[in-house]
């Protein structure tokens, strides 16, 4: 066990820090599109976008450890994302690198690295949730085209995406529901595609429903072989991270929560002096650190070349619970001001906590509900029988 | 001993529920509360419920009401809570309670009839900061002015500040705590409505910029004890709405769990859904029992009332906060959409939890009253 | 709603109180067998044993409300039980009154009321828990006798009982597992019966396994018709109470817990001054009161002639949770002295809390585990589908 | 960065586990700990583990040990915890840690070899009352006596008081906090073993009735800081046993859930069993991570150590208390029998929770160290 960095790793961390010092001043307006565009360009020049991808497709060829260092340092400094095409970098790129034709690689990878446009992912369907095996959106081959009919739901940022990576059913197999699923890459402006944003309870919209009505997709936009879509997706799923960057975002929320407790009064004294409030915050801090340490242990496993199994469900469950509870608690300690939102004179921190308390499902839904994570842990790790 | 409702109370409940189901189902709740620039209620429905006698339920018959008690009010408010009915009914009924606790016969005769017939909308303006309303936290000073007082300062977290026309305002009159009735159109009064996450419940600020209250507007009963009795009645009324809403959330979620098919069977088949719902049910049952006892005690056994009011509020609002979150979570992804109704209960639970003291405050009161 | 007593009810309560004042001095040694025997004799003379049973079998013919008053007053004064034959009064008596022959009534009821000897109940079996439908202990009719073979488990006080009320399977019905169950009344000294006490984790034994090896039971000891055993049992189950007496025992524990908190120091100050300890105790108090109020509401239902359904599961669940949590908390606030037991100089209250913290399962097992109660509430009250 | 164990550590773990599985399975744990009048350990096994080098694991090589660090000790103690191994090994290893933190070279040379070879059994006697051991709570005064001190008073909640032969005893030496080594056979020493619910872990009282300690028996390093470092090491060692035992309880319960058939299928099929088990697993995983980091920090990054030690103890002991109860409950009725093993973990969890500070104490420390 050695929790210090090697000299090489330290050198890389220093390089990252120096880059951040130079290019990301504390007071940089991270919401300014001009600044973000320039920032992305610089990152791209350093090959830190797609940092773990092979150099021959334009990636940085970074190690897992370097990648973790990069992400942690970035998160600590509240840097804008590593690339602007989040879905492309997380899901689409790795799948294309693993299964794409040479032509597909040349056509899509540079744009993903440049953040030229957004991708979205068409996996979930109504009435199936995360049960991809029960997929019903259908594609029928007609000559050199697939004709797609069906519906997707919980498609993140579909309304701002130029392309979608889409799972469709091309045949039925009674014995193995995962067979007969095929992966297609589809331009969102293809005739027959309709996007309907889903308004969330906080009043915004991040997800959408996507409808496919006789949508024609050329065969050359198929990713992998017909019927291989499940395998293609699994590859992308395996690219999930150890959760280290998420820990940084939780840590920032925790620090803000401490400041909130210090400036919020209860009975005339700072809430931060209340033993119950202190204990709650210390519990959050401890659980966040546990998540961080879990992540470091899983990262070590990866570094040692052991495959990561269902351990990510542990991080997801912890994260979901923390997001729900921290948002709720931050609202709770504000007393009567708790339910006020942005615009109310008495709302703390411009209503950010209220937004957090209504936005956790975005995190929770992302990787399956807490109940699903618990099933995965119980069945795949503890070996309990499936229901 | 009879710890159940009378036939008349059961009839009241079923009539209120029937009316709200017909006139203000959740689509209508949304339409009223989401209306741009609206005050969060429907003047038409307000008129109708005044005619149905809801507003005058606890107003003595001589002043144009039905002269009923706290238990009857609980029946009414449980149903408005269940329906998430957006209106200043709770606030008005609490203003009525304050006038009955502290007003002279003349003062009751002056204001109760208009509160009963809906021409006035009442609101208790009990807080100055985000802490629970206790006598010690009243610091607004009434400067003696002839036979009356001049009030300068502000009251915050005032329910339905945007809609109410008549406020009950505690202030310091020398060494004593007193209560004044302040009307919206009095000189020096201004109001600010605050945006909140629960669109069906509004809060705001009442600014008193040198408002003069004559001796006839200063309520007859004074002191910490009457203030606490008013807060206890307000807390019980609020708790009734909480209990009704929590029950509504459980019913909504149980129905969804029966209908929603996943992996080939209704999600309600799984213990991961069943057990949380069973716990929600137990919490609602227990909240009801504590609430009914507290309501009975307020009218019939006042010495016990503070302890039971605190138990009911502490237990119910804490349970409702969990139920609000669980209701959304048990719906899965759709629970988080604006379209599904689960979040309406979640938001209500967030609004209700701190009002008139959160569970920390009330459990501490239970401990102290229990001899600790 | 009227939570006061009627003048008649008050008169009865005063009668009970006067009786208690006279016959149960505060300092009476409730563990002294001589005192308890005398006490039972007096109660029996007042017809308060079997108080709700019809007068013609020797019961008191009391109303539900009088019964509740009697039990509450008794519990409040820590009176010894209403009769010494607990199982007989709770389970066996009501079943015999409803289904027994005239001869059976005359033979058994007076002894139950007198507490002449103990009864136990042979319902649960290994591998079935509370699923009575899956009962396997078998009885085959041979002439005027049943020959019983099989095993029972969790039979409370079997080692001190003279008789057992026993459920056996007399035939198989594929369509309805509850058919073919028959109820027998069996002397525990019948040849072929073996009792093996089950040592619990607190080191004592309250339950036992009972084995039946060719045990011959005369047909006249059958209670009800052959195949009617399920119905007979259900009758007894319906005699469960609203939980009011249990509330009194919880309340006594709560008061003792408050005293414990007052005399236990944490960091040199009484634990009862710690806001967290105060809040925990207030929560217990509130939940106990909720249980009490729930009981009063259910009692009102009964008084109004409405049948009680699965509401008792609510009381059982609350009680089980309270017993577990209060015992655990009482141990917790004692700090390092928490794990000490009777005999240790530093153990508080002679180790009673440690015993409580290791004895809750007796309460929890009694009426089915918390998980089973939750299933009952979800399925029978909320109408969710069975698993 | 490498947050995993070395090959040597993995080997140590597997050898310890193999030995304990063979020589001290749970039947043997019961036989040793339930023995009438026994001191709660087996002298034969004690001799064997001394020979295996477990007792000298952290004793410097010059003093007859293996000279390993806190992380290695954690590996050993996780396994003894998992096996609920009844022995004064934890107490002895904490006495070793105290001597290494505070003893001079001569003092280490005097006592460490006998602790390493098992001829001495050590125990830190850090507490005088039921509160967590902090410097302020040490009130036993050493009266100066020539070049030494005379100690009069008592230490309570002393681990393995019945078995230990050598105690590390903090006392007030003037304005300073000092530590003395007191041997069992010294004049004025008497001991009392207390009965407890966990038969595998013993506590008792050390009475010092005018015990003289010479200057050579007063440890070289003094003051609050060294006391706190010793308590931190003790806490980390204890937490390792907690984490191992909690893991054992989860494994036992998961195996039972796979085997036990009810209503026609294994109870582990139901989410009512699955979900609590999944949460138990997450808690054990998280406890491990916090513990490993704390152990690493104790040797390599001392400034961070107190915060992480407190996090690990607070989280792990609270989780283990829940796991102990859940393990019994998930077994259903049999979980409550003496015969089934679930209660052994429950009792251990009750023993471990308050030792060296419960979660209230440690979370408060986390809050304070985190800037609140």
How do you describe this structure in short?
The complex is a heterotetramer, with two copies of chain A (387 residues) and two copies of chain B (372 residues). Chain A is an alpha+beta fold and 387 residues long.
Outline type of chain A? globular
Class of the largest domain in chain A in CATH? Mainly Alpha
What is the fourth-level CATH superfamily of the largest domain in chain A?
Butyryl-CoA Dehydrogenase, subunit A, domain 3
As a percent range, the share of strand residues of chain A is: 15-25%
- Low-confidence parts of chain B: none
Number of domains of chain A: 3
Oligomeric state of shown chains: heterotetramer
Number of strands of chain B: 9
Which structural class should the secondary elements of chain B be placed in?
A: alpha+beta
Please give the radius of gyration of chain B in angstroms.
20 Å
Helix content of chain A: 40-55%
Strand order across the largest sheet of chain A: 1-4-5-8
Proportion in helices of chain B: 40-55%
Strand count, sense and barrel status of the largest sheet of chain A are: 4 strands, mixed
Which H/E pattern describes the elements of chain B? HHHHHHEEEEEEEHEEHHHH
CATH class of the largest domain in chain B: Mainly Alpha
Specify the CATH homologous superfamily of the largest domain in chain B.
Butyryl-CoA Dehydrogenase, subunit A, domain 3
Shape of chain B: globular
Written description of the protein model:
The complex is a heterotetramer, with 2 copies of chain A (387 residues) and 2 copies of chain B (372 residues). In chain A, 46% of the residues lie in helices and 16% in strands. Chain A is of the alpha+beta class. In chain A, helix 3 (64-76) runs parallel beside helix 7 (244-263). Chain A has helices at residues 7-23, 33-45, 64-76, 86-99, 102-114, 229-237, 244-263, 275-303, 311-332, 352-366, 370-381, and strands spanning 119-122, 138-142, 145-156, 163-169, 181-187, 193-199, 205-218, 222-223, 265-266, 269-270. Chain A folds into 3 domains: 7-84, Acyl-CoA dehydrogenase/oxidase, N-terminal domain (Butyryl-Coa Dehydrogenase, subunit A, domain 1), CATH 1.10.540.10; 119-227, Beta Barrel (Butyryl-CoA Dehydrogenase, subunit A, domain 2), CATH 2.40.110; 242-381, Butyryl-CoA Dehydrogenase, subunit A, domain 3 (Up-down Bundle), CATH 1.20.140.10. The relative contact order of chain A is 0.08. The longest helix of chain A is centred in the C-terminal third of the chain and has 29 residues, at 275-303. In chain A, strand 2 and strand 3 form a beta hairpin. By secondary structure, chain B is of the alpha+beta class. Chain B has 3 domains: 7-120, Butyryl-Coa Dehydrogenase, subunit A, domain 1; 123-222, Butyryl-CoA Dehydrogenase, subunit A, domain 2, CATH 2.40.110; 225-369, Butyryl-CoA Dehydrogenase, subunit A, domain 3, CATH 1.20.140. Helices cover 51% and strands 15% of the residues of chain B. Chain B has a 4-stranded antiparallel beta sheet, with no helix packed on it. A 3-stranded mixed beta sheet of chain B has the order 1-4-5. A two-stranded antiparallel ribbon of chain B has the order 8-9. In chain B, a hairpin with an 8-residue loop joins strand 6 (189-194) and strand 7. Chains A and D meet through helix 7, helix 8, helix 9 and helix 11 of A and helix 7, strand 9, helix 8, helix 9 and helix 11 of D.
